[in-house]
Amino acid sequence: MEIKSTTIIGAGGWGTALAATWARDGRKIVLWGHNPKRIERLRETRENTDYLPGFKLPDNVQITNDPQDCDQSSLIVFVVPSTAFRTIAEQFQGVIGPDALLLSCTKGIEHGTGMRMSQILSENFQGHRIAVLSGPNLAVEVARNLPTATVLGSADSECAVQLQAFLGSPRFRIYTSDEVIGIELGGALKNVFALSAGVSDGLGLGDNAKSALVTRCLAELLRLGTEMGGDPRTFYGLSGVGDLIATCFSPHSRNRKVGERLGRGESLGDITSEMQMVAEGIPTTKSAFECGRRFNVDTPIIDQVYSILYDGKPPAQALTDLLQREQKPERN
User: Fold this and answer.
1) How many Cβ atoms are within 10 Å of 32's Cβ, its own excluded?
2) CB within 8 A of 83, min separation 6: which ones?
3) Potential cystine with 173: which of 149, 178, 261, 277 (Cβ 3.0-4.6 Å)?
């Protein structure tokens, strides 16, 4: 099918960056947000001062709070927080056309069910072709049109190739894959590990410790991700180790920043009360903790991050508990 127009559901930093990127060649983009006052301000100024200040949206981006403005789009892109994903999907059930392609750019795992975002879409939009997009894609750098690579996964290879051709560009390079599970799990779990990397920074542990920590995060990602159905090869790609590196080391990473502030002794409540944007690693830590137990997988780093966030454990004590674990071969 020909993609004539695109709707991006979610006017946060990532949704705004994608709107700016995909509108550069003059294509019609509809950007939908749930907050009427914020959307009205964005419509007037063309700048998302709350989530992506300093970037003007082109005139060919239609900004709206009305779901009905999205009903003619042939590509629907979901870029909403994982905790609101199901609610928003249900809200658009009666709006999205029967032939529309659906693309999830949200990185998270649903609490309780352990479902990935594409599974929630499949449950709510039966019969639609569904794809996912993930990778080391920091919103501010994408908005600046800096070179970026990402991976787009779909069980429908024709759908993946079509979206690759439509959405990709020399500055937004898209690779395709038919391995959706690993792509989504890599994109979700790396946010938890970024929190741990930030804690390491906040405690001032140095580059040796942080590099070792991130390496063990990859081992943990592989253990849990493969047990949940992901292909190990996927976790060595853009949505796995690529996204892990960017999120654990970049000063632009929200999750790393949250972890750093926790490591410096700030409370989670104080940190989140000052944040405009969602740090997906916070809710995903709870989901990942649940999944580790459901699949009987050893997840020491996830467990310690969970203890810091939800049990109030001091970060220094969490580090001590990690270091005091039994020594073993690296392959484990």
Assistant:
1) 27
2) 108, 111, 278, 283
3) 149
The residues, ordered by sequence, that sit 6+ positions from 16 with a Cβ below 8 Å of its Cβ are 31, 48, 51, 52, 55, 57, 139, 143
**How many Å is the Cα radius of gyration of the chain?**
19
Beta-ladder partners of 311: none
CA distance 66 to 91: 11
Which tokens go with 37?
A: 């006052």
Q: Nearest-CA neighbor of 220 among 200, 202, 194?
A: 194
Sign of the CA dihedral with 71 first, then 77, 80, and 82 last:
positive
- For residue 244, the model assigns a pLDDT of 98
pLDDT tens digits, one per residue of 154-198: 999 999 999 999 999 999 999 999 999 999 999 999 999 999 999
**What whole-number distance in Å separates Cα of residue 306 and Cα of residue 310?**
6
Compute the distance between CA of residue 309 and CA of residue 176 in angstroms, rounded to an integer. Answer: 35
Active site residues: 190
Q: If we measure between CA atoms, which residue out of 186, 304, 296, 202 comes closest to residue 243?
A: 186
Using DSSP bridges, classify how beta strands 52-56 and 47-48 pair: parallel, antiparallel or unpaired. antiparallel
Query: What are the residue ranges in the chain where pLDDT is below 50?
Result: none
Q: How many other CB atoms sit within 10 Å of the CB of residue 212?
A: 12
Whole-number pLDDT of residue 277: 83
The full 3-state SS of the chain, as one line of letters, equals CCCCCEEEECCCHHHHHHHHHHCCCCCCEEEECCCHHHHHHHHHHCEECCCEEEEECCCCEEEECCHHHHCCCCEEEECCCHHHHHHHHHHCCCCCCCCCEEEECCCCECCCCCCEHHHHHHHHCCCCCEEEEECCCCHHHHHCCCCEEEEEECCCHHHHHHHHHHHCECCEEEEEECCHHHHHHHHHHHHHHHHHHHHHHHCCCHHHHHHHHHHHHHHHHHHHHHHCCCCHHHHCCHHHHHHHHHHHHCCCCHHHHHHHHHHCCCCHHHHHHCCCCCCCHHHHHHHHHHHHHHCCCCCHHHHHHHHHHHCCCCHHHHHHHHHCCCCCCCCC
